[in-house]
Amino acid sequence: MQSIKYLIFCLLICQSAFALPELKTKQALENLLYISDDGKVTYYQKNSGELQYSFNYKISTIMKGQKNTRYKVIAAKNVNHIAIERNSLYHNNKSHIKQNDIFIGKYLSTDDPKIIGKGINPQFHLKGKMLSFYNKRDKEIKIYSVTKEKITQTIKLINKLQPYFVPQVSILTPDSILYNDVNDKGYEALLMYSIIDKKFTTIYKAQRPAMTLSYCVAGETGFILETPFDSVLSGSQILGINLYNNPGFKNTFQVYSSEFGDFPSIVCKNDSIYFIKTTNYISQLNLKHTEVARINAKKLTILTKEKYLTQVYEFAGMILTNLNGKVLIVENNNKLKSDEIATPEVRE
Amino acid sequence: MLHQFYQNLLNKAFAGVLCTLAISFNVYSQGIFNNFKTLSDISKESYKTQIKILQNQEFNFQDVKDIQSVSLNIDFINNLLINTPARYFEISKRDKCTYYDLILSNIFQSPEGKIEFIIFDYFNKKSEQQTALAKKSVFIEKVINIQCPGSIKLSKYFDNNNIRKTLQNIKLKQPKNYSDCQSIINSFKDDVKAPYICSLLETLNKKSVNKRRLQSLPKSNYRKRKPIEQEINLASSLEKILKPEALKYIDQICLNIDNTEKFCNAYFSDDYWRREFISKNSEVLKSFCDKSDNKSCLKKFTNKNFCHFPQTKKITDSLKPWPNCEHISLAQSYSRLFQQYNDCPAAVGNNDVVTWGRVLNHFKGLEFKSNKNCKVNSTLPTIKFTEEASDYKSWGAHVCYDDKIKREEVCYPTLLDNSDELSDYSLSTTIGKILKRLKGYNYTNKACRIVSAERYKPTRLEYKNGCIILKEINRCWGTDCSFKVILDEQEFKLFSFKTKTDFEILPTSYLNENKSFKSILEKVEKRTFKRILNISAIRNIMETHSNAILYGVGCAEDILPNFFLRTEINRCTPTPFILDGLISVDGQNSLVTRTSFDHIHAPRIIPWMYIFSGVKSYQKLHPLNTWGLYAIY
Q: Domain spanning A21-156: which CATH class is it, in words?
């Protein structure tokens, strides 16, 4: 009996050794909005509706909102700006047509952020010189110039079929905007809009309707993950497309393909692509067995065998995923300096 | 529950069968079929021997000490069980009288076919246990008539003379969903009529065999021909009395009486679309085909991909693509949510209104009156609930005007559309009230018409007089809208439209607990909200409360990961949803789910772990750390 207990104990320990580590932070994880890559700066919110940041053991309030407001904060790399999305009445007004307030402010500053429009999903581009956000009500992508301090471009989506569709936007150059859209037959496509030429070019169109395209950009290459929507029976693939010097974007190469429908989650970081790979599908339960995969230099590596993961994303330089309400670390190559205060010498 | 004595008897019978099988099983012989054949031969031989021995013995029912203690002989039962389809063992477990029902209904078969003799044990006057044999008709009269008179009476209802009338009075309950199906088949097993109903099936199945037997018998053999002719006539009568659907139903239920899963799967999985088609005027089919009563509509569902983007004139604004036809069919087979109406979640514009509307409509059931405008099917029940069920009036859309006499602003809660039967909340009525107050307009005589701004042509005669509400269709939803009022060709501006949605479905603070929709539904409509933490609790609720549904709030990024991407930490789109069916396969579970984004007729099958993750993630962001999954019944 004792030996059985020891055996079970050992098995549990072994199992936990292979499980992904859970992300632990000094303050409540659910309040965190942004952590710098070196871990020194944290933006977070409070239930009272305040948005604050902490740096060098000092706490500062940026703005005060209604109770139970939720924020999203993104910081531009290499430039001193942050963008804030403020969602008031987060719990009591669950509306897909609700417009959140979009602000722009200075990084590590208590100056009042400036409201620039209404929408969702603010994203910095071109090292913080441009900001995009999406107006759900009017189905428009807004491009805001941080230097000019005004909205310089509006792109209206043609999508009428999918009322909850939110485009993924990337600004590659001051002239070209990459985004996805859906036509009235359900075909999704990745498009390039040239501001100067006022012209749209299709980079890639899904091979059939009911497929979704998500993408990430690494240098000059775009990687498009084409996967079927829920309950659509089809395989998946990742295509690489050179976004420059590629007339008509005809030059594509397949990086990965699968007979199973993967989840549309893809992250490009350094020279690697991270995504969720499906290994088995039980149709009657609509259940996928998955693993987190990384493609690097044409080599596919499985990073974890946790079976039921559905998303990967990047945060504070780490690749994270969620399972059962917990945030798990898939990969963390950050070398953080300890900020512990050295214990003083005890003099006798 | 079977009396212990008979339970022991049954156990012995099973043990006997198993031992006989074990003894005759020989790995080096020609296989199991041959062994069973041998067993069947052994049974026949032993039966014949037993009959022969007992026929030579003298017996009189006067020797029986107490008729009540007469029981069927164990070897006799063994022989019956070997020669009767194993599925009927399920019925036989009930009580002693069920054995007699199985004999009277001719379900039980002897090694020689129909039972002619009954072998039984009894105690004689000296209290010695004896075995005897009697003709079936005599046993019925002397024993069954005394021990189980109800069985005799029941068997008469199913004889040739009374069968038509009996069948007309039997109502076969059609299952609406999978859990309903399970309880129906369990009730059928306990039904005293089950052996007789299943014997009808046996009679029908034997019709062609009987016809061949009859052909081979000489016409002079009246004695043998008569019972066969009677069976054939009965089969023919049954074919005339019972409709094909009823025949198929009896066929399935009796063939699978020992296998609930097989019956319910067979009943539901393939035939869902056909059942909807037969039911005529199916609201569900109308979401897929404009001509839902046309057979060409039914054919479309054979293509799984057809359901992803159905093209109909009906407004079905919702999360697309819909699941494939097979998944929708499977989900609907397990679903119990009331759905005899159309709703259009994206056109409503508020997820709480969509899901709460479904909850309210479900408990209203057939009393609910569907509106042609799909948005009103969600907004009208919700506005009535918020404005009439309690003092906390929380509907967000109001039309207001300055009342100069009262010196205050007066506001009316309003829908942004009209219901089929104009209610106090219809937009025409609320605007009409303001016009009456400020302009003396008689809105009861001539209600304001709602017209889309794109179609409005002020030069046309129809727009010259009266009140017109101009809506910008592309900027109008069920809970928010941009509109103007034109009265006698002039724009009426003396009103304001205010919208501020602040629904407390689950309380976000202890102070607001009484204001929450959950609390109001519990107190006013006496509904129970039971917190659900795991699959066992869901299964228990589904089995014990036939009308129960589950209401929850979770992060869309976990529940619908194909549609909502998590691109940063703590990203969570709070999504109300309803669960109303549980699918289990090999210990894993998925739920029939309608999120507030999904169309009511296109439920999704979502694994339990996604639902759990979604609810758990939302719990962490909730100010009261509320676990947002409840059963409502």
A: mainly beta
Closest residue of B to A46, CA-based?
Answer: B623
Residue B31 has pLDDT above 50, yes or no: no
Residue A211: phi and psi, rounded to 5, are -110, 145
The string of DSSP letters for A14-39 reads HHHHHSPPBP--SS-GGGEEEE-TTS
A87, with CB counted inside 10 A (0-12, 13-18, 19+), is buried
Facing residue for B561 by CB, picked from A89, A91, A311: A311
pLDDT digits 0-9 by tens, B408-458: 999 999 999 999 888 899 999 999 999 999 999 999 888 999 999 888 888
Shortest distance, CA B364 to any CA of chain A (angstroms): 24
Which among A67, A72, A89 is the nearest to B568, CB-wise? A72
The residue written with tokens 């859209």 in the block is: A181
Residues of chain A with CATH 2.120.10.30: 21-156, 158-333
DSSP character for B141? I
- pLDDT tens, position by position, A225-255: 999 999 888 899 999 999 888 888 888 999 9
For an interface test with A, give the residue of B319, B567, B572, B582 to mutate (most A CBs within 10 A).
B567
Mutate to test the interface with B, among A123, A286, A292 (most CBs of B within 10 A): A286
Q: Where does A158-333 sit in CATH, by number?
A: 2.120.10.30
Asked whether the beta carbons of B518 and B507 are under 8 A apart, the reply is: yes
How many degrees, rounded to 5, is the angle at CA B341 between CA B503 and CA B286? 135
A157-189 burial: b if 16+ Cβ within 10 Å, else e: bebebbbbbbbbbbbbeeebbbbbbbeeebbbb
